[in-house]
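> example.struct
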């Protein structure tokens, strides 16, 4: 009895008040989702970095710029021969710096917006409400991180072997911060860092909305009756399905985003006057398939990207939720 009492006396000394406050804070649903979203973004983008870069190189091609008019395998081999492992990872550091806050804000804001649509805390929502919450979360995350996205695009293509870029020095390419400062100084200040944001928002809102909506619906379908959660394999499958559906439905907006992001880049600018002008020019010069350039490597990356994203998100979030101090910690 005394030993047990002695153990109980020692309980309060295991954690100081600051540790308990920190555990209480990060175990809040919105905060846990925010932190887990950051982890999920970094994991998913690193896994598919070569395909992500190849997709961008496919997207920014037009008539007369066909150095990467290749199959996915040939494109990856060309990248490897010319640039090696660094070519596969080109722009991934910037992408991770962007995707961690982007994914964190996206998952965190989705859980925040859900509170206004749930009939009861943690209760179920209709598909339309999931779609609206996801769309709002996507727009929120874009506005916070868009300058890093446009810089990532520039970094992804500036070392590729496009003839139009032949006049650029190859010895030492500028990094993320240098590229951002150069764009700010030479291309119009803050607006230059948000070039292409309109087609981005137009594509991201339905993409993120569809992604969250389809994932939660498929996840429910994959959850065995009587269980609260599906297995890890089923979560991976749900993530792959949701990503494929969302990407296919919104892909033309992604092509427009990339084109506008390099609209003033020396040697590669397309000089589109507006979104509608860009759509018209692309379809006239490249056909309807021009709106889907790069979709093959994009779909190939969707399955491992979204699957790893959702699984790492749920695992990290569930771990953080368990950190909430219990009675035994007080």
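> example.seq
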């Amino acid at each position: 009895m005394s030993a047990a009492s002695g153990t109980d006396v020692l309980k309060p000394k295991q954690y100081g008040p600051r540790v308990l406050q920190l555990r209480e804070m990060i175990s809040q649903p919105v905060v846990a989702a925010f932190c887990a979203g950051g982890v999920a973004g970094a994991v998913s983008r690193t896994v598919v970095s070569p395909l992500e870069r190849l997709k961008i190189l496919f997207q920014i091609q037009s008539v007369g710029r066909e150095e990467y008019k290749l199959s996915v395998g040939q494109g990856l081999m060309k990248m490897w021969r010319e640039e090696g492992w660094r070519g596969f990872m080109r722009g991934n550091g910037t992408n991770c710096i962007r995707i961690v806050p982007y994914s964190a804000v996206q998952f965190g804001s989705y859980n925040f917006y859900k509170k206004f649509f749930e009939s009861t805390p943690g209760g179920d929502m209709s598909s339309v409400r999931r779609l609206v919450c996801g769309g709002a979360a996507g727009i929120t995350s874009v506005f916070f991180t868009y300058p890093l996205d446009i810089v990532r695009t520039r970094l992804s293509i500036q070392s590729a072997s496009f003839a139009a870029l032949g006049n650029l020095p190859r010895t030492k390419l500028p990094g993320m911060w240098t590229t951002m400062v150069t764009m700010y100084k030479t291309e119009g200040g803050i607006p230059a860092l948000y070039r292409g944001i309109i087609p981005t928002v137009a594509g991201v809102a339905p993409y993120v909305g569809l992604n969250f909506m389809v994932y939660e619906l498929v996840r429910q379908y994959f959850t065995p009756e009587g269980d609260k959660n599906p297995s890890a394999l089923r979560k991976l499958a749900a993530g792959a399905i949701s990503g494929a559906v969302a990407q296919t439905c919104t892909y033309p907006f992604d092509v427009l985003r990339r084109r506008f992001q390099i609209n003033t880049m020396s040697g590669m600018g397309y000089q589109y006057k507006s979104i509608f002008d860009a759509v018209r020019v692309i379809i006239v010069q490249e056909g309807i398939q021009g709106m889907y350039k790069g979709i093959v490597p994009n779909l190939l990356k969707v399955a491992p990207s979204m699957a790893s994203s959702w699984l790492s998100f749920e695992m990290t979030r569930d771990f953080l939720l368990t950190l909430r101090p219990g009675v035994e910690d007080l």
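> remarks
The chain is about 70% helix and 0% strand.
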